[in-house]
Specification:
The chain is mainly α and about 80 residues long. Helix content is about 60%, strand content about 0%. The radius of gyration is 16 Å and the shape is elongated.
Length: about 80
């Protein structure tokens, strides 16, 4: 597995946990422990996202700084593939 794939797997794992806990909050809106866990996971996710975007480009078109079309100038995902 490449470094890129490992980082994507970590990102998706954290995001899945956050999404799952947010669904739980739909039925338990006052659960302070769950809210704290979401905050903790979000704080862990952010540096991973920044690392990924610094190495491989933005994950979403909304993660660009200026012009919404600047993301298109980055390499496409298949252009970043590491060769074993």
């Amino acid at each position: 597995m490449t470094d890129r794939e490992i980082l994507l797997k970590k990102l998706s794992s954290y995001q899945f946990m956050i999404d799952d806990l947010q669904l739980y909050l739909d039925t338990h809106p006052n659960d302070a422990q769950t809210l704290a866990k979401i905050k903790e996971l979000s704080e862990m996710l952010e540096p991973l996202r920044k690392t990924f975007e610094a190495k491989y480009g933005p994950l979403f078109d909304s993660n660009t700084q200026s012009n919404k079309w600047t993301w298109i100038k980055s390499p496409w995902p298949w252009e970043n593939e590491e060769v074993d």
